[in-house]
Amino acid sequence: MNKPLRRVAVFCGLLVLALLARVNYVQFVQADELSEHEDNRRVAIERYAQPRGNILTSDGKPITGSTETEDTDFKYKRTYKNGELWAPVTGYASQAFGATQLEALNDGILTGDDDRLFFNRTIDMLTGKPQKGGNVVTTLDAKAQQAAFKRLGDKKGAVAAIDPQSGAVLALASTPSYDPSSFAGNGEKDSEAWSKLQKEQNEDTPMLNRALRQTYPPGSTYKVVTAAAGLESGDFDLDSKTDSPDPYKLPQSQTDLGNDGDNPACKNASIRVAMQWSCNTVFAKMSDELGNDKMREMSEKFGYGNGELDIPVRAAESVYPEDNRPQNAMAGIGQASNRATPLQMAMVAAAVANDGTLMKPYMVDKLVAPNLNVVEQTKPKELSEPVSSDNAQKLQEAMETVVKEGTGTTAQIPGVTVGGKTGTAQHGENNEKNPYAWFISYAKGEDGSSPVAVAVVIESSDTSRDEIAGSKLAAPVAKDVMKAILDGKQ
Amino acid sequence: MSSNLNINTGSNTTVSPGGLPSRRNTELAMLIFAVLIPVFAYANVGLAKDGSLPAGMLGYGVGLGLLAAVCHLVVRRWAPYADPLMLPISTLLNGLGLVLIWRLDQEPGITTPALGGALAPGQLMWSTLGVALFLGVLVFLKDHRVLQRYTYISMVVALILLILPMFFPARYGARIWITIPGVGSLQPGEFAKIIIAVFFAGYLMVKRDALALASRRFMGLYLPRGRDLGPILAIWALSLMILIFETDLGTSLLFFGLFVIMLYVATERTSWVVFGLGLSAAGAVAVASFAGHVQSRVDGWLDPLARAANGGVTETAQAMYSFGSGGILGSGLGQGYSRLIGGIAPKSDYILATVGEELGLTGLMAILVLYALLIERGMRTSLAARDPFGKLLAVGLAGAFALQVFVVAGGVTGLIPLTGMTMPFLAQGGSSVIANWALIAILLRISDTARRPAPAPAPSPDAEMTQVVRP
Predict the structure, then answer these.
(1) Which residues contact A431 (CB under 8 A, 6 or more apart)?
(2) CATH assignment of the domain containing A106
(3) Which chain A positions have a beta carbon within 8 Å of B274's beta carbon?
(4) Quick one: which of A288, A164, A193 has its CA closest to A236?
(5) Distance CA A341, CA A217 (A)
(6) pLDDT by residue (tens digit) across B5-37?
(7) Is the residue at A264 inside a domain?
(8) I want to staple A35 with a disulfide (CB 3.0 to 4.6 A). Which of B106, B256, B324, B354 is the partner?
């Protein structure tokens, strides 16, 4: 009986070996994957085990906080100062619903778990101090942000403001907004607040970050890009007359395209005049003459088609698609399937204002360790050079004409040179929905350089359809944001 | 009969004629560790949870020490040649189990009155009862061969124990408990595994020749005769019935595996293993294809991290997170979150998840190696035993223990589908801890007999005769 007995013993040994192999696989090979799995509650428990570091505005004021809770799992809870105002920047950090945007991307720094804080952590551990989180210093200007949010008010819309010279994001507002504090915990109230904010229950989608994550037809604001392509091609000049009929019959089509208010100045108008009165006929024909490839190329130089624009929160991709002739002509005036985020249009204004150089937008200035050492500093980076300096200045002249004596007069700021472009984008089937009101602009300081470029979009408001226009709705918002920045500079 | 068989089957290599050293002092030294480690673990939990040594630590320590001391003295007196490792390992596992349950009792979320409140005191009481039974077996069971007399009685008792739970309501999705009003509930399967090993050992010892030799060769396999196959098919059917009516995958697997192992050892015929595996596979597939209970376990095994139907995180996934978060060194006793598994599970079926999370891969491997050692000592006892009944009984008990450890640990770590059995000694459960102490006592008794120095050869009657006949 001993032979089978030995075999049984070996078999039992194999069973134990299989167990040992398995636990090694689970606890060694799979350990990281399991311990960081999104469903693993320990991740959240760890995240809130100590007060979280803060997210700060550019002048060093925290827009977040932490408070101690009674909860058995989570010792601390995230709080937000003026949460609705800053939600598009911070995102949220909720015990029950995870984290997004800066809260998620910089989670390591904020909790103090980042590898770059290893040294701090070790010292704290040795000296018996509790772990501390670092801070995230953003580039956002509190006054500009407030101006944007206040002026948007109860209208649905978004504002993106950039410093053209560095690419630093100065304001990033989206309305309607939400207060991330309302669901920062994991109680029943938090769940209720959360579900009320979800798409299914709230058609206003307050949690949508319209400035970064939503694309709209850019409407006439896109004419700046068309004009840039025209000037760069060498076939057009700022003040020479174009050969443009009014109305313009779209190529390969029987459809006539007219101009807003049937402005007689649009016939054969120069780029400057066409910009001044936002002539559809001129720019649609220009887009057609340049062709789909050239238009797309110029759009992409301005940042279109970049699916990985991380600032560090990823912005949605703006698209200028490959298209047929009539569609391309329409896309040249910001309609058809041309879609852009407010950030993208702010980048267009910024590139023009910065003499043709487009800087990569960013909204985190630096990451700071708990002991205030700088862990990471963002350096401004050039993204591309869509137009030459000469042509950029011509575009500036055209945009300044728009504000001085064109469709954008509502954006005038006394004593300051402002360049802008209005837009009213049709959308919906047969254009029956209320159009989007757009405005992109920049302001010039005394030395001729520009400290701010803004894009504003307003999706809908109580204003009757006829009155919706970039100049009435969007330009005053942009003006307030620019003023806030300029006031801060003095 | 037995004395004759000794000569034929007793291993000449493992039992030296002069007898082995008794190793009682080794056992004592090991026992001291086996008591100290849980006491330190207990202190560790207290320090981690409250920053102070737990109240009553001295009392528990002294209590555990006294129990161990009594065990040691009884073994010294009544089973002086018994294996020196089994008692310390069992004591250590039981002590660690108590600490782990006590540690989980500190979590208010899983220690609600609805879940039975604190379970460590109860477990301590059951452990004491288990140790009492252990002592009783050692004192009153002078020779394990006595059990052979009860072959058919044990069969009847085992059948009753296995069938009884069908008449009681299911708890936690399995019908494996019998509830006695006023006393509490009992898991008869734990006792059945010992009793059935006794029955198999007795039955197979008598039938082994018929099973082994009366067979036809067919395609390289020895096919058993129909009349010998009968009881095996009956056992197979019974294990399927347990699976179907009690929805207890673990017990039926253990039960059938035990039978195959003992059959194989008794007959030395590989064909029995092939039959056994074939039958169990057929049964498992047949049951799995229509029993939802089994299916959901298989699903949980194939995709452990999948969310439950209600969108929540499943127990299986929670256990995997426990293991993953424990990593190599673990979070330290008292500093893990295995309570997230929820309900009573972390104290019973999933207690290994707490080990994995708080003691880490290192601790979990150490525990598994302890089990492996215990199983190995059981197998060695079987090898050393001089009588076939003792051999079969020892391999049966050790095999049942091994299968149970494998089924539970494999299920909890996701190696095989979860079957819901208790981790011997470690997990909360009165029946389990009592039955396992009895199991260890029987193994110790067999090993004592096996390692006892061979009695001096009886004076040969023939030799006497020649001397008596004198001129």
Answers:
(1) none
(2) 3.90.1310.10
(3) none
(4) A288
(5) 9
(6) 444 444 444 444 555 678 899 999 999 999 999
(7) yes
(8) B324
Whether A5 and B395 lie within 8 Å, measured CB to CB: yes
Which contacts qualify for A103-110: CB closer than 8 Å, 24 or more apart?
A: A103/A55, A103/A78, A105/A312, A105/A313, A106/A55, A106/A136, A106/A364, A106/A367, A107/A47, A109/A53, A109/A133, A109/A134, A109/A135, A109/A136, A109/A367, A109/A375, A110/A52, A110/A53, A110/A54, A110/A55, A110/A134, A110/A135, A110/A136
Using an 8 Å Cβ cutoff, are B179 and B168 in contact? yes
CB B399 to CB A8 under 8 A?
yes
- A58, A220, A270, A299: which is the annotated catalytic residue? A220
Q: What are phi and psi of B314, to 5 degrees?
A: -75, 165
Instruction: Work out how many domains chain A is built from and give that number.
Output: 2
Q: Are B449 and B143 in contact (CB under 8 A)?
A: yes
Q: Which residues 6+ apart lie within 8 Å of A466 measured at CB?
A: none
Residue A264 has pLDDT above 90, yes or no: no
H or E stretch at A469? none
Choose among A1, A2, A28: nearest Cβ to B328. Answer: A28
Say whether B405 and A28 touch across the interface (CB within 8 A): no
Out of A123, A142, A166, a domain closes at A123
Cis preceding linkage at B121, omega within 30: no
Q: Which of A27, A36, A43 to mutate to test the interface with B (most CBs of B within 10 A)?
A: A27
How is residue A39 written in tokens? 């469903």
> Which residue, A251, A453, A224, is CA-closest to A332?
A224
Phi and psi at residue B117, to the nearest 5°: 65, -155
Which residue type does B73 have? L
> 3-state secondary structure string, A431-443?
HCCCCEEEEEEEE
Cα diameter, chain B: 99
With 0-12 / 13-18 / 19 or more C-beta atoms within 10 angstroms meaning exposed / middle / buried, residue A199 is: exposed
Give Dmax over CA atoms of chain A in angstroms: 111
Please tell me if residue A252 touches chain B, with a CB cutoff of 8 Å: no
| Residues paired with B171 in a beta bridge | B174
- Please list every residue in chain A whose beta carbon sits closer than 8 Å to the beta carbon of residue B375: 12, 16
pLDDT at B458 over 70: no
User: Where does A174-270 have alpha helices with state H?
Assistant: 188-197, 210-213, 223-233
User: Any idea what DSSP says for residue A30?
Assistant: S
Query: Which of A123, A156, A183 delimits the end of a domain?
Result: A123
| Average pLDDT of span B417-431 | 87
Min distance B458 CA to chain A CA atoms (Å)? 26
User: Contact, A327 vs A281, CB < 8 A?
Assistant: no
Q: Determine, yes or no, domain membership for A200.
A: no
Asked whether residue A166 is assigned to any structural domain, the reply reads no
Residue A149 lies in a domain: no
- State how beta strands A135-138 and A55-56 pair: parallel
Range of the domain at A110: 40-123
Which has the higher per-residue pLDDT, B167 or A168? A168
**Per-residue confidence band for B121, with pLDDT thresholds at 50, 70 and 90:** confident
Cα gap A439→A410, rounded to integer Å: 11
Cβ contacts of B327 on chain A, cutoff 8 Å: 27-28, 31, 35
Q: What six digits make up the tokens of B228?
A: 């010998």
d(CA B6, CA B11): 9
Cβ-contact A173, A179 below 8 angstroms: no
Kindly state whether A128 is in contact with chain B, defined as any CB-CB distance less than 8 angstroms.
no
ipTM: 0.89
Measured distance CA(A225)–CA(A295) in Å, rounded: 8
* CATH code, domain with A324: 3.40.710.10
According to the model, what pLDDT value does residue A188 have?
87
